[in-house]
Amino acid sequence: MMTSQEFNFNSYSTNFYGQYWQPAETKAVILLVHGMGEHATRYTDSIIPKLTENGFGVIAFDQFGHGKTSGKRGHCPSFEAVLESVEKVAEKALTVFGDKPLFLYGHSMGGNVVINYVLRKKHSFKGVIATSPFLQLAFQPPAIKLFVGKLLQKIAPSMTMGNELDPSDLSRDNTEVQKYIDDPLVHNRISPNFSITFIETGKWAIENGDTLQTPTLLLHGTDDKIIDYKGTQEFSKKSTFATLKLYEGGYHELHNDFCKEEMMTDVVNWLENQL
């Protein structure tokens, strides 16, 4: 595992845990936003070393209710608060790395965050990479659960439920699935502010895809049982700024699946082409 420099920041009465990795020489910086129930350190065996080996600095943080960040597991105050946490890390990136080209990289829930960020905010990011972005679920949550979730959002927004994620759907590589199961920082809690809100903001992103004006690389596996690649495909068709690559048979976590070498090379090549 690579060594990182750690940092903390506060936002919405939450103490956030962040880390950054500096290559010998930095040509650009990647701000990494992890997915539901996990945390940024899970990327230190896959994409982070691949990026730093190629001269890209990486800065990452554990989202609201995740990893080593304080607060109730699986809960966030609001979607705006989530977007603001990204902004805070972008400011930190500037102080750490100086004025280098800055890219957003988000997986799953983090993919929804980075896409919505560039659609909704004035920003100076050079580009976006979104892997298996949470734009459209691959399964239909039970109607009763959606109803209860919407109700809870009004009366008890911090109440959490299980996210019903089956770890074996993450990767075709059983070793990776087991690592996820054994990780003490991984959890399956989710509040309506994450679940209902992300279903809505995913739908909004697809509907407003034609406003995308930031170069965006979208990567998705065709056998993702958690997030539907067809939603990503629909989004990609809305803007000439979007590039889509599908991985035949790929599961949800492409960076931990059998196609990871190809996928990580695709990421580096695309980044190089943006510079």
**Helix/strand/pairing class, anyone?**
alpha/beta
> CATH topology, which one?
Rossmann fold
Using only C-alpha atoms, the radius of gyration works out to 17 Å
Summarize the biggest pleated sheet: 8 strands, mixed
- N-to-C order of helices and strands: EEEHEHEHEHEHEHEHEH
The CATH homologous superfamily is called: Alpha/Beta hydrolase fold, catalytic domain
Helical region count?
8
Q: Helicity level, as a percent range?
A: 25-40%
What is the total tally of β strands?
A: 10
The rough form would be described as globular
Task: Give a concise summary.
The chain has a single domain (5-274), classed as Alpha/Beta hydrolase fold, catalytic domain (Rossmann fold). 36% of the residues lie in helices and 20% in strands. The protein is built from eight helices and ten strands.
Describe this structure in words.
- This protein has 275 residues and is α/β, with parallel strands linked by helices.
- The protein has one domain: Rossmann fold (3-Layer(aba) Sandwich).
- It is 36% helix and 20% strand.
- An eight-stranded mixed beta sheet has the order 1-2-4-3-5-6-9-10, with helices on both faces. A two-stranded antiparallel sheet has the order 7-8.
- β3, α1 and β4 form a beta-alpha-beta unit.
- α3 crosses α6 and α4 packs across α6.
- It is globular.
Strand-helix topology:
Blueprint: E1 5-11, E2 14-21, E3 28-33, H1 47-53, E4 56-61, H2 79-97, E5 102-107, H3 109-120, E6 127-131, H4 143-155, E7 161-162, H5 174-182, E8 189-190, H6 192-207, E9 216-221, H7 229-236, E10 242-247, H8 260-274
Parallel strand pairs: 3-4, 3-5, 5-6, 6-9, 9-10
Antiparallel strand pairs: 1-2, 2-4, 7-8
Helix pairs in contact: 3-6, 4-6
